[in-house]
Amino acid sequence: MADTAPTKIESPNVINKVEVISDRPDCATFIFVDEDHTLGNALHYVLMKNPKVDFSGYSIPHPSDNKMNLRIQTKGNTTAQDAIMNGLSDIKDISQSVDERIGEESNQSHIYSDAQLCHRHDGHPTNRLF
């Protein structure tokens, strides 16, 4: 049987953030430290959009435990590690696109003064803006 001992994905700026438990290349559990539903749900969503992924699911083992478990199973023509790296890259791209769009919109938005508030026919201001 293959070795199922956890391995760590190393990065120069990240210290023990992710552990990988896997006995096959197409199936793995990734344990994220200090992550919650925000990353878990986003990763699950983008992974399930990937046609090379058969299954993705995440769980928070206990509310007081600061870990998030993510299980991935691929169709075999790609590894679970490749799938998660692609998923993280997709989230980064989506986030950058949203950030750029918000920047564009905030440059075009207007701040209205009290004098620019709509007034009802009786002269009292409403909460609506022009």
Average of the residue pLDDT scores: 82
Largest sheet: 5 strands, antiparallel
Low-confidence stretches: none
Helix content: 25-40%
Proportion of β residues? 25-35%
By helix and strand content, what is the structural category? Answer: alpha+beta
CATH topology: Gyrase A, domain 2
Order of helices and strands: EEEHEEHEE
Radius of gyration: 23 Å
Number of individual domains: 1
Could you give the count of β-strands? 7
Molecular structure report:
Keywords: DNA-directed RNA polymerase, Nucleus, Transcription. GO terms for molecular function: DNA binding; DNA-directed RNA polymerase activity; protein dimerization activity. Its main location: nucleus. This is Putative RNA polymerase III subunit. It is built from two helices and seven strands, in the order βββαββαββ. β4 and β5 form a beta hairpin. It starts with 6 loop residues before the first strand and ends with a strand.
Which secondary structure elements does this structure contain, and how are they paired or packed?
Layout: E1 7-8, E2 18-24, E3 27-33, H1 37-49, E4 53-59, E5 67-74, H2 80-108, E6 117-119, E7 125-129
Helix pairs in contact: 1-2
